[in-house]
């Protein structure tokens, strides 16, 4: 049995089919091999944190105003004039 590189506790061996890995029940260290079974680490909170980051850093800009300015084209001259 290996020792945890973090807390020197005894590692638990886990087997997933052909793949065996170790994890530490004391500090939740996990030696996860690069496999398709990799467990995503809380993608939801990461996305929330990212959204919060953008909301706090990016100044509030009216998207309609930005679009109209970027898409600004010269007004076409009126061809037919009635005088
Ligand atoms: Zn540990």
From TrEMBL:
Chain positions covered by the region annotation Disordered: 60-83
Listed Basic and acidic residues bias regions: 70-83
Protein name: Uncharacterized protein
Provenance organism: Halopiger xanaduensis (strain DSM 18323 / JCM 14033 / SH-6)
């Amino acid at each position: 049995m290996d020792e945890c590189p973090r807390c020197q506790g005894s590692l638990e061996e886990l087997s997933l089919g052909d793949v065996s890995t170790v994890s530490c029940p004391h500090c939740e260290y996990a030696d996860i091999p690069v496999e398709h079974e990799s467990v995503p680490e809380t993608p939801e909170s990461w996305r929330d944190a990212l959204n919060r980051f953008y909301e706090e850093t990016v100044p509030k800009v009216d998207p309609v105003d930005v679009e109209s300015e970027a898409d600004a084209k010269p007004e076409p001259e009126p061809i037919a004039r009635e005088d």
